[in-house]
């Protein structure tokens, strides 16, 4: 089997909001890469044995932050280097050039004119639209670099070293608005660094299967299956690798969406023949949540009880030696960048935390190298249902945080029905995939309505739909009025207990995506 990590790029991160995007784009063209802070240990950079290094953008100014530089070893390793935005500025500066500071940012489209065809610009148009987002710019290249592209506002929009494979671009090729950004990254990775495209869903699966087999041997493995994307893909991957040696524990909290528990069982136990222990724990969750109104208390109760039940069940599996987790690459990057160093991340809710000491399980984390979009592609390649893999995010505490205040069974039942109608209509109209996340929220207030000749006095449901890239900020989705009207009509007519439907028009900030 080919080593899919053989050709690899190292991305040194100067703090740009686009750094993960650079890595995702590089992976998309089939090349493995990893992100590390720009000041990572020099010995680490050497040991990484990169085929090439990319210096990311960042918020600093080379004239003010003299220590925020590419480590000198980057230019001693004899590998190609591509500097993007700040990465280009610091490279120019470190090679004797000059960067002019500016308070005014250039943000948005610009047209560049390529003045010299180097391998970086092979087979692309001479004039192209690119995406700029910078304040400072390189104004003097010193002796070693030459200009290879210009824009009106940035006469040095791209540069190349005269004798070495070092390049810099002031714009952002990783952003899709840059028309030939993908080609630029391909030219860098394939033509300049000599990488091969070895990274794709099928080869990732083959690699993971081999590694899992080597790691666990004939031992048994336990996995907390939630029905979410990450744990579902881990289940499918482990099943492919070790079949019967895997047991999944699926805790049905009673706070899942309509028929979700049955769907999880159907997909994994019935269709794929994965060992799944289903624990119907609705009554235990509802009993613990009785009389509790505070959102944070609710979250803690749900999280703790979930862990307790998972522990009880997995302790019954006497032969289990390993615990599988759906940790993905962004979690790993976060922990690597944290002041506590490369701590092992255990996601707080569905990926189980507090296992009993005496269980002494080792961790299996087959998604540690993957971005979410790669996890999804791997899931589809493994044969998981498209809709399961491309489902909107669902919070760990489930409907527990979508029923405001105290959680009751009849509230959950009403909400499940309303939410299901909402999702059906979003699917039918094609809006499910156009928004990032959508769901209904149960408001425990009563409102007057009329139905036929009868007066109704029933509960209110709010519809939420947002568009976002990172879920840190979001705008409310501008769903067509006709669609919102149709959903509202169906909910009020079909769901007993609802007299009114409202649409949430709050962005994040100031709102959060969830209501609790
Ligand atoms: P907020 O409401 O903070 O949500 O704007 C941002 C994203 O996180 C999800 N979310 C959670 N996920 N446990 C989770 O696993 C939680 O307690 C939780 N709270 C919010 C939310 O659905 C959205 O995608």
UniProtKB/TrEMBL annotation:
Gene3D superfamilies: 3.30.300.10, 3.40.50.880, HUPs. Keywords: ATP-binding, Glutamine amidotransferase, GMP biosynthesis, Ligase, Nucleotide-binding, Purine biosynthesis. It catalyses: XMP + L-glutamine + ATP + H2O = GMP + L-glutamate + AMP + diphosphate + 2 H(+). InterPro entries: Class_I_gatase-like, GATASE, GMP_synth_C, GMP_synth_GATase, GMP_synthase, GMPS_ATP_PPase_dom, NAD/GMP_synthase, Rossmann-like_a/b/a_fold. It is an enzyme of class 6 (ligase). Residues 199-391 form the GMPS ATP-PPase domain. GO terms for cellular component: cytosol. The keyword Metal-binding does not apply. SUPFAM superfamilies: Adenine nucleotide alpha hydrolases-like, Class I glutamine amidotransferase-like, GMP synthetase C-terminal dimerisation domain. GO terms for molecular function: ATP binding; GMP synthase activity. Its EC number is 6.3.5.2. Homodimer. PANTHER family: GMP SYNTHASE [GLUTAMINE-HYDROLYZING], GMP SYNTHASE-RELATED. This is GMP synthase [glutamine-hydrolyzing]. The gene is guaA.
């Amino acid at each position: 089997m080919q080593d899919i990590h053989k050709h690899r790029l190292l991305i040194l991160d100067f703090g740009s909001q686009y750094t993960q995007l650079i890595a995702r784009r590089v992976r998309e063209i089939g090349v493995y890469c990893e992100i590390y802070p720009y000041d990572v240990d020099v010995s680490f950079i050497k040991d990484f044995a990169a085929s090439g290094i990319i210096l990311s953008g960042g918020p600093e100014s080379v004239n003010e932050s003299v220590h925020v530089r590419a480590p000198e070893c980057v230019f001693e390793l004899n590998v190609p280097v591509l500097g993007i935005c700040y990465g280009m500025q610091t490279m120019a500066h470190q090679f004797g050039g000059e960067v002019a500071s500016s308070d005014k940012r250039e943000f948005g489209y610009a047209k560049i004119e390529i003045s010299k065809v180097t391998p970086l610009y092979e087979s692309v148009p001479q004039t192209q639209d690119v995406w700029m987002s910078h304040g400072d710019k390189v104004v003097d290249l010193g002796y070693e670099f030459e200009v290879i592209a210009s824009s009106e506002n940035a006469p040095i929009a791209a540069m190349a070293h005269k004798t070495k494979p070092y390049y810099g671009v002031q714009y952002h090729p990783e952003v899709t608005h840059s028309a030939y950004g993908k080609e630029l990254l391909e030219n860098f990775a394939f033509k300049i660094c000599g990488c091969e495209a070895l990274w794709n869903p099928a080869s990732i699966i083959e690699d993971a299967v081999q590694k899992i087999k080597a790691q666990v041997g004939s031992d048994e493995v336990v996995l907390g299956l939630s029905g979410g994307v990450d744990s579902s893909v881990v289940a499918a991957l482990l099943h492919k690798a070790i079949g019967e040696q895997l047991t999944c524990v699926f805790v049905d909290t009673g706070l899942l969406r309509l028929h979700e528990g049955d769907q999880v069982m159907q997909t994994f136990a019935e269709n794929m023949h994965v060992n799944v222990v289903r624990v119907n724990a609705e009554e235990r969750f509802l009993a613990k949540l009785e009389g509790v109104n505070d959102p944070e208390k609710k979250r803690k109760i749900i999280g703790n009880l979930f862990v307790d039940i998972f522990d009880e069940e997995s302790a019954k599996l006497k032969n289990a030696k390993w615990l599988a987790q759906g940790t993905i690459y962004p979690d790993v990057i976060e922990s690597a960048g944290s002041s506590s160093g490369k701590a092992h991340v255990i996601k707080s809710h569905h990926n189980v935390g507090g296992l009993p000491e005496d269980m002494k399980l080792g961790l299996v984390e087959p998604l540690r190298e993957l971005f979410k979009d790669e996890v999804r592609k791997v899931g589809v390649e493994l044969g998981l249902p498209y809709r399961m893999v491309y489902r909107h995010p669902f919070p760990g505490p489930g409907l527990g945080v979508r029923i405001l205040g105290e959680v009751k069974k009849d509230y959950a039942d009403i909400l499940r029905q309303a939410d299901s109608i909402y999702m059906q209509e979003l699917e039918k109209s094609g809006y499910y995939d156009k928004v990032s996340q959508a769901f209904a929220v149960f408001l425990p207030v009563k409102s007057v309505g009329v139905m036929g000749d009868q007066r109704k006095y029933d509960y209110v449901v709010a519809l939420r739909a947002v568009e976002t890239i990172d879920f840190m900020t979001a705008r409310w989705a501008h769903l067509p009025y006709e669609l919102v009207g149709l959903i509202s009509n169906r909910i009020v007519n079909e769901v007993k207990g609802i007299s009114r439907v409202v649409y949430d028009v709050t962005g994040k900030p100031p709102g959060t995506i969830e209501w609790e």
